[in-house]
User: Fold these one by one.
Assistant:
Number 1:
Amino acid sequence: MTNYIVFDNQGRTSDRYTIVDRESGNVFAACEPTGESAITVRYCGNCADHRVALYGTGWRQMPLSRKIIIGETENYIRNAQLNPAWLGKELSRRDWPATLQDYVDQLNNLHAEGLHPTPGMPYIGPQNDGNSSKTAMAL
């Protein structure tokens, strides 16, 4: 679980928490839960997307090596730690809200089960139609 890091901007924006997956480079924005509501999370992108050659060209898109993804993710995290005004300050694990902890646990379980076969592509699910997960799409 140490492959997730959370930044807190103290409520300056509606997406108070930023979750970064150190392994895949995926970045998520999370809103602070109000009352009994569950936490709301949105996939923001991947730290290494700008390094993809021919991005958005389908089968011609060149996948990134593991070394590049880890390097770009560590760069992203280091920049966020050096400039707390950007994403906020890093939250220690014991300071995570319970709903945020539950969401990160779900992300970790999905990742452990192999439901993230494509780097940079978020998945939602288990689904009721028999599929184990479906690609989340931003419109």
Number 2:
Amino acid sequence: MNILDSIGSFLKHIRSSAYLDPVRDWLALLTLSMIALVGIIVWNVWAFDKVASGGTIGTSSTTASAIFSRSSLDAIHTIFTNRAAEETKYVTGVYSFVDPSQ
């Protein structure tokens, strides 16, 4: 708690000795905002340039393993085929949709 007390007393000292100057405060705020904006823009340009030239941000993986197996891809294809068949039943009129609010 000794560190927190010293930080608190330091902040009280700064607040009590500083006079209010809105122009200075706004200029400080705008200056810091502009510095942050320039930093963000520089970071985005660097990241875009790095990725556009084929690089990676962070550590790149050296080995690429097969992520998908053929059986899981076939299962996904079957699911979407079944969904499409159900959709055509609604479109062609095999199923009739009754709106409960009517």
Number 3:
Amino acid sequence: MEPQAWIYQQDKPTAGRKLLLLEEAELIFALPLIYRLINPEAVASKPDWFCDAELQTVFYTKLVTQLNELVRLRKKAQRIDNELTNVNKMLNQYFTDFGWRMVRKELSQIKKRQKKSHIELSRDIILRLKRYMETQKLDSFDQAIDTLLSEHNENISLNVLQHTDEDVVGDIIDE
């Protein structure tokens, strides 16, 4: 299913990337965020994010029902194209252009955080890594660790080949 474009309520921006509605692949990150943001208390705290306040109460119930149906179908591993389209249409009516832009920003941050891991290293290991990065002209810890792991794997492969060759020579001599 192709990503659905946001239908602007105000003037369409002339520059920048166009806003997109939710895609199936990002639902795992997006649904908890959406549930949190559509809550009436959140609506009250960020009124510029949401459309017509009088309609929010009625619309909130319909949106939650539709979201619950989407979640139910996802759990059963069934096709969700129609439900996702309906949820996206409702989200487009629920949020203002500004509000949806803020939702997309938060979603982007969540996705970024999911891609990164944090490990604790002692200061002396960090200093050794930095020296290694300087000597190898590497820009990041990621590159340094990746290079070290690759070198390690190459060494292991060479050792295995070397031992295999020695075993073959030893077997020939033993015969």
